[in-house]
Amino acid sequence: MSDVAVEVTDNERIDVSDGVSIPKAWDVVATGEPNVAGAIHLRVVFDEQLRRTVASSVRLDRAEEGAEVTAAALRDVRVQYLVAVSSMRVVEVTRAQSKSEPLREYLAEVKSRTDRTYEETVRDAVTLYRIAATVNLAPLKLVSEQLGVSVSTATRMMARAREAGLAVDLITRETHNRMRADNDEQMRPHQPPGSPSGPSIDR
Fold first, then answer.
1. How far apart are CA 103 and CA 18, in angstroms?
2. SS3 per residue for the chain
3. Structure pTM?
């Protein structure tokens, strides 16, 4: 079980939109990572051009005297995983007329709510998608998991958000491709039940 420690080194926070904010930079120290005998040091920053968090430097310190840092050990360092894990710890969310709260509190509230309207759910989907895009996670997967809906439903929510002008800058290639696939599916001619859908493999 790895131990990941995060120290925010820059108190300036970046507002990435939709109530989501993140520090400009922080340091990460990870020990106990699989196949890595040593301490991994990462410097993580929010890259304004990429609009997401990235590792700006990575260092591996040997665990003890008699050990050494090898190319094989460096290959096993899960840089993107550690960037995402640490990013999730420092993200904060501010909702309308409320104070900023840590991501874990926001996610707990999102999962516990059962009385929100569809429009409120779409707005939560946009916020979740924004968070995932910022910390370099799969956006539709996070929306699906946190709202308890299918990926297809999450895709439709983001399409609805885009139509409402809420997420024009957020649509990734993954979501765009899924939207096109869903649209193509809706445009296909309807086949009566029991009609052949294609060539049979037993003929």
1. 13
2. CCEEEEEEEEEEEEEEECCEEEEEEEEEEEECCCCCCEEEEEEEEEECCCCEEEEEEEEEEECCCCCCCCHHHHHCCCHHHHHHHHHHHHCEECCCCCCCEEHHHHHHHHHHCCCCCHHHHHHHHHHHHHHHHHHCCCHHHHHHHHHCCCHHHHHHHHHHHHHCCCCCCCCCHHHHHHHHHHHHHHHCCCCCCCCCCCCCCCC
3. 0.78
User: What residues contact 138, with CB distance under 8 A and at least 6 apart?
Assistant: 132, 174
Which tens digits make up the pLDDT trace of 66-100? 778 888 888 999 999 999 999 999 999 998 777 88
